[in-house]
Design a protein that fits this description.
Elements lengths: L10 H17 L6 E6 L5 H11 L4 E6 L24 E5 L2 E2 L13 E9 L2 H9 L6 E18 L5 E16 L5 E6 L7 E4 L14 E5 L8 H11 L6 E5 L17 H9 L12 E6 L6 H12 L3 E7 L6 H15 L11 E4 L1
Helix pairs in contact: 5-6
Protein name: FBD domain-containing protein
InterPro entries: At1g61320/At1g61330-like, LRR_dom_sf
């Protein structure tokens, strides 16, 4: 339909294509693993949902409303319990207006929810929708309300990955999850003080949250949605002049630092430094690196020296040593002096390495 319909085509053509989509769904034999529909007209959407969930038992469903100049849709009244189906584990909606949350009642098994360009009559609709997903693990939001209201409440105990791309007319966001370990923040309609996190696994330093994107990685194991999450989040960096990246990493944990059996983290980083494709890659550059809890260990020194030698850090490397006793601080200062000696005077004249 996306290839067939444009602003110059008439509504009759759109309806004929919608009928063809219905026929294709009905003619499919057996269950569906995944289905993605881009549509311009709204008349058949609820019929598709009913067939795809109840009859075809689709696991991953994506519906994208694509309004043209002639077609003003999106204000679809989804029937109650439209997405309440036990086999549905992933739901992605784009370009709709939600007036109630009744269609999302008791979605016990849904693990992934993506709401893109979704407008609600009030914030209570979104809060009710999110409260209907006790098993939610991945949440992606690009949402807005007709009028400003209170905070968005994300209280999903199993939530692991959260991506807030953009919000409009939402005064605050409150996130509570004991399992959340990856977070990406785009353009918010609230200030950072109104973004409240109660997530013990998420090591998030608010003082380095700059205007734009903040992405925190703090996980011990890869999960099903992590790879896609990283890819989609990295695409966002192109739209922000400044961004923050927060990484919580245990260099001695083999699940977090991939290396050959028996290989030390120091050898890993120094070896990567000599390859044609340096760690993390040749194009990745940051103005400032903040290294919290830097102890001056061999592994930490190897990582810091790798970032300096490759020119990854441009202006400042800030190393926090205040959390250690005075005896340990002397060792850290010695390590910092060695890092300063690695600076190439001509190419890295802007770079400064300091303790704080």
């Amino acid at each position: 339909m996306r290839k067939t319909i444009n602003a110059n085509k008439n509504l009759d053509v759109a309806n004929r294509v919608a009928t063809l989509i219905t026929k294709i769904i009905d003619n499919h034999r057996g269950q569906l693993e995944s289905c993605v529909i881009d549509h311009y007209t709204d008349d058949m959407v609820n019929t598709w949902i009913q067939s795809l969930t109840r009859v075809k038992q689709t696991k991953h469903l994506t519906l994208r409303h694509q309004p043209g100049h002639m077609y003003h849709g999106g204000c679809i009244e989804f029937p109650p319990n439209s997405f309440t189906y036990p086999r549905l584990t992933s739901l992605s909606l784009h370009g709709y207006v939600l007036r109630t949350s009744h269609s999302f009642n008791n979605c016990q098994n849904l693990k992934t929810l993506k709401l893109s360009c979704i407008l609600a009559s009030d914030l209570g609709v979104f809060n009710s929708v999110l409260a209907s997903y006790p098993s939610l693990e991945v949440l992606v939001l690009d949402i807005s309300c007709f009028k400003e209201s209170g905070p968005l409440k994300i209280d999903n105990k199993r939530l692991k990955l959260l991506q807030v791309l953009e919000t409009k007319k939402i005064d605050g966001i409150q996130v509570s999850s004991t399992r959340l370990d990856s977070l990406a923040i785009g353009r918010l309609s609230c200030g950072k003080d109104d973004f409240v996190l109660r997530c013990p696994r998420l090591r998030f330093y608010r003082n380095v949250w700059l205007a734009g994107l903040c992405y925190n990685i703090s996980q011990e194991e890869k999960n099903s949605g992590h790879e896609e999450f990283v890819v989609t989040t990295s695409d966002l960096f192109r739209y922000f002049p400044t961004a923050s990246l927060s990484v919580s990493l245990d260099l001695m944990n083999t699940r977090q630092v991939e290396r050959e059996e028996g290989e030390s983290p120091r050898n890993k980083f120094l070896e990567e430094n000599n390859k044609d494709h340096p760690f993390p890659n040749a194009k990745f550059r940051v103005e400032t690196v903040w290294m919290h809890h830097f102890s001056g260990s061999e592994e930490e020194f190897a990582l810091a020296s790798c970032l300096i030698r490759q020119g990854t850090v441009i202006k400042r490397m800030m190393i926090k040593s205040t959390s250690f006793p005075a005896r340990k601080k002397l060792e850290i200062e010695t390590a910092v002096a060695k890092l300063q000696a690695l600076i190439r005077k001509k190419e890295q004249w802007q770079l400064a390495i300091k303790c704080f």
